[in-house]
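In this section we walk through a basic example: taking a raw amino acid sequence and producing a predicted 3D structure, encoded as discrete structure tokens. The instruction is simple. Fold the sequence below.
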Amino acid sequence: MKEALKVELDKVRRLSLSEQALEKYAESHGTDIVRFTQRNILRVYPKGTRFNSSNYKPQIGWLHGAQMVAFNMQGYGRYLWLMQGMFRANGGCGYVKKPDILMNIGPNNQVFDPKTESPFKKTLKVKVYMGDGWHMNFKQTHFDLYSPPDFYTRVS
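The resulting token sequence is shown next.
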């Protein structure tokens, strides 16, 4: 695997791995895979015994910088929803720019290590400015000062 992931400055190569091989090599060669995908193309495809059109976890390929993560589009479920959400970030065109963290090379020639804990968290704050439709179910006199409406918002 070390030979397959070797980066050559004067060549661009393509490597195809099954989902099983990627999971196996990501454990032992995670940073080598990230370094490879900075200048070369990595394609991940479903294992051959996946006959029921189900999908595998796409985050493993995306986290290591894989440019092509193949999907079974006839199946439905959580991993297909993740894929749809990922590509919705760019209008559903099928391409999302790789994050800078996967492209940067730090001092001492180090690259992003997918196994390390991230020191940052992101919080999503949502303000609902207007709700519509609730007034259809209640008369204006239904509420008073002691029993205000109790509404909730679900974001998905």
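Looking at the output, two observations stand out. Residues 14-109 form one domain. The CA atoms of residues 17 and 93 lie 24 Å apart. In the next section we compare this with other chains.
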